[in-house]
Amino acid sequence: MVLNEAVRQALSEGHLAHLVTLNADGSPHATVVWVGLDGDEIVCAHTRLHKKLQNIQKDGRVVLSMTTGGKTGALDNYLVINGHARVTEGGAPELLNRLAQIYIGPGTTFIPDGAPGGYITRITVEHIHGVGPWSEQAEKEAHRLRSRYSNES
Questions:
Q1: Measured between alpha carbons, how far is 99 from 135 in angstroms, rounded to an integer?
Q2: 11: buried, middle or exposed (CB in 10 Å: 19+, 13-18, 0-12)?
Q3: CA 18 → CA 3, 25, 134, distances in Å?
Q4: Which of 14, 20, 101, 112 has its CB 3.0 to 4.6 Å from that of 63, i.e. a possible disulfide?
Q5: Measuring CA to CA, which residue among 43, 39, 40 is closest to residue 17?
Q6: Domain of 110: which CATH number?
Q7: 56: closest CA among 88, 92, 86?
């Protein structure tokens, strides 16, 4: 899915995100992560093979949610993304230091030179919903999918 500018902006402004993965028993496992973008993929960096990464390696279905500031009517804006994640090795220190410029402040070195490569989670977006300027895109995508599947029946 190609992310529109409103979604790209929300994912790039330094809002903490809740990443939900699935434990082996199917129960949810929620953590807070920093997020960034690599093209149309959402990326998170990790220094160790945490539980969330082990979960993704077994089942890549994830949900990412964040409040984004602003309001639509009386409701606070929030973004929810359903997607499929995969874990790649290496690159975590560089990504964490790039994200630290947004989440902590310019000039921050979060991970020192020479640190182990860690892991990167790459999330391919499958569905966008929530309240905010992306709601219209989500509705259009849902309508497109409904139309496509009803035509195939």
A1: 26
A2: buried
A3: 19, 20, 18
A4: 20
A5: 43
A6: 2.30.110.10
A7: 86
**Rounded CA gap, 29 and 52, in Å?**
7
Alpha helices in the chain (DSSP H): 5-12, 51-58, 92-103, 135-152
Distance, CA of 27 to CA of 16 (rounded, Å) = 22
Q: Assign 110 to helix, strand or coil.
A: coil
The number of distinct structural domains making up the chain is 1
C-alpha 150/C-alpha 124 separation (Å) is: 24
Q: What is the pLDDT of residues 96-152, one digit of tens each?
A: 999 999 999 999 999 999 999 999 999 999 999 999 998 865 455 556 656 777 776
CA torsion sign, 8 to 9 to 14 to 15? negative
* Burial of residue 145 (number of CB atoms within 10 Å: 0-12, 13-18, 19+): exposed
Structural domain span for residue 93: 5-152
